[in-house]
């Protein structure tokens, strides 16, 4: 059919045509047409059903081509998922087929045929028809997915297609009525779950709150009701699915094969990789549940726009069902199969598998948010459940202890009951953590207002002393304390976690560590860290109202906060000695320690604890058991100890502290390397270990850098750096040690260079330059193993590039002005300065470039770091580029070309980086005015590349911006060549219509910036025209 | 040819008290192995697997069930034979770590499948076998080429000599590498 109409606009992609010719599309179209006839009375004014169906998806086989092209083009412009846009066929599946991607935008322009025909009658009835269709075809899972996909598209309709808000409201009302009709009274098939969830999440994401609230109250509440029921039901089904899929991991059980392909019809168009698709196959309800929970999060975050309290009841229900699905029987339904049988499979879990708190972070964030909305219900619920489980755990462990004392066989212990308790506690702690606090990066996390209000509201009925008593006695059962029902619930929830922590600690003291769950240990310190960041030493200035119990218990200068800091510290120390064999748990533990000291106010209390000093001393002397910790943990521990050293202490104490923490490190290191026989013993395992431990510690010290301690840490580290270079020679046969040495430099540069003044940066540059020289000397003639080698063989190269990039970053981020008071003095030294950043970096590039090869670029980490580095160099030192030796220059230019053109072989960031490198190079050429230099010739070549990329290749918005900027500067430089390119492109067009369109487009493109000149205003004008240009003819010539 | 210190030019004096040190039993006083908690091992370090000194090439952890304890999966390459050994053990376990020494000797002769090696103090030992396989062949051919060079006095002119790296661990010794060295 399309061959007949032969619209050039549809040339771009084959998949588009395929999708249109897909028989299912046709089927649906016809079915829909039949249905439309049935529904005639409803479809009153609609001009043409086919045309109407346009935006829905790609069902419109022979409809007005202009609409198709216009809307399809519009998608290209608006959708950020460019892969998707390039293949409009897939777009139909946008909602469901692209579960992770942003929802497709159906923003239609008013001047389109479609909207002009429908603006008089807002698109209201189509949805109904499709839903009717859906009822008829839902037995066929493939077709059901297609029709749900259409509905999902309908649910994301927005933009000028609606003349006003009331039109939008009535459209939505209609959609919702249809949806509710469709869902009511049917049992949802597996294949429909994701489709329906997508529909709902699309409409919640698309329609403004004002439209939702303008809906008839009854309709809105039945929608919320329906959403609640669906969420709970999908949640239960998801839990069942988990049980089944876990069973599937066991080879002896038959794999469930009844599930249809990924719902919502991404079928053949799917870009999801095979493995994830296989996972998804088995987890349709999990996906649907995720989507609905996400929608709840969106609603809950803006709940002030909705009638007060309208989400409380639904929140309670969803929250309850989540908890229920995660608790063991009898209260919960975890691990129960559909017929009520408990399943308990022990699977092997590799270290690569994410922890639940990350794997389910989205779910947990939503559930936590709902928990806040219904805090009245949820916080006491969690507390009660947690206290109960902890008491049971305590009892169970005691029974085991007695059992163990009676019999000598440790294997006789049945872990089933314990594991169930651990799993319950695991989920309860995760939900509590997400409910009570947020985990923000780089911001001070605040106590969520709902939680604060909840605590404030009840503070009148609370007995603060009892609350503190419950908090301060984690060893006792909470319910055994008199008046325990008059406590602050928020504090009570924390103390429930502390009780879990206490049971754990006591069990370790009773040598029951074998019976404990490292997972629970992780959850506890994870929770405590999250809690401490938000609640510990709560700053009253940050809140409008503050709850008295919270500020009494955790405010600054309170006994409560001192007590809890001491408690947490003890926990950390206990964990580090008991759990040194559990890397993840030890890591979460040191992270808790870092949290305690990274804020000055908290650190001030920490350093008053005797335990802290003991810890510092023991670590400094490498006494057991701290030396058993793995090296990343030791590194972080060092970081924490250094951070703590900058807390408030009197000068004697401070001196003493440093004498006990940093000086032993230095002393031991110097003693070792200055030993007369160091050269002989240096390869001995024990010596190497000492060296490695020192290097790790140095990295940890560098990581502890903050603006107020950089001065002292810098000079301390500088003393080490030159000795480290000596070690490069000694350990040149031991790549892992060499890497660690380079890493020290990388960390110092990364953390400190932005604060250093001129003299100090110079010292760092110098020492880095020496490092590079030694590295290059040692690498001469070094043969690396074959290209099939693993990525970590090139760790040194990666680190060198990181080091160079870090040194360059000074040009972007520099906080040093403040600490260099005597800039006048600096001037005189800078005249005689020996090393500049450019010298170091270019020297480094001389080393790195010859070592890089096309094969190495196949490693993503190397590739990205390499391009980041060369782009930085082009941007910062464009004047140095023409001075490079010929070979280097060539390989640099070749690298740029490769990076630009190798998409998608390399990531799109790489091609973007390369494009960004072009403008400074072209500007450099323009500055020198020299023609026929190699750089000038290279830029001419790049002009053609960028031109072709923009005009002939698939469109990619982010890249287009970068390409546009590059193109403009290149056009300025090579105006004649640009005209030639345009001419030759035009002359190759045989179709007069296309020729004209192209010619017009090109002349408009440069109309506002003629003659092209390198100034910002003109450039911006050009970029704006380019946007138009791409909208108009972009993709026109794109040949796949 | 003056005996030269090969390993580290800056070091002035070798400090081996006993020139006839018994290599078979390792250094006097130093134990062959020492224990280390499994979790503290690191990749590229060494460990004893199945009674053999190995370099760790792979190290990963896993657990049985969500609440299980960590187990460490180790893959090591026998430092002498290149054979792969694997082991899996609870991460709380102590593993033996071999004391490994690597010494460079000057190659002065290859005879009847044995190497003549000169220590930096001038002592010559002839008890070490020429390794089998490619390395053995490489040592032989390089040594012969070196002999020719010697004949042309080039060796003396350029102060070139061949160095053999000898690895010793757990009472076992083996030549593991040959390299050309320029002595001062």
Automatic annotation (TrEMBL), chain A:
Subcellular location, record wording: Cytoplasm; Nucleus
GO cellular component terms, A-Z: cytoplasm; nuclear pore
Record GO terms (molecular function): nuclear export signal receptor activity
Ranges for region Disordered: 85-105, 110-129
Protein name per Swiss-Prot or TrEMBL: Exportin-4
One GO biological process term: protein export from nucleus
Coarse class of the protein's main subcellular location: cytoplasm
Organism superkingdom: Eukaryota
Secretion signal span: none
InterPro entries assigned to the protein according to its UniProt record, in alphabetical order: ARM-like, ARM-type_fold, XPO4/7-like
Keywords assigned: Cytoplasm, Nucleus, Protein transport, Transport
Family (UniProt): Belongs to the exportin family.
Originating organism: Electrophorus voltai
TrEMBL record, chain B:
Membrane topology listed for this record: Peripheral membrane protein
Domain Translation initiation factor 5A C-terminal: 99-179
One GO cellular component term: endoplasmic reticulum membrane
A single GO BP: positive regulation of translational termination
Any GO molecular function: translation elongation factor activity
Highest taxon of the lineage: Eukaryota
PANTHER family, sorted: TRANSLATION INITIATION FACTOR 5A FAMILY MEMBER
Protein family membership: Belongs to the eIF-5A family.
NCBIfam families associated with the record: eIF_5A
Protein's UniProt name: Translation initiation factor 5A C-terminal domain-containing protein
Organism encoding this protein: Electrophorus voltai
Lineage of source species: Eukaryota, Metazoa, Chordata, Craniata, Vertebrata
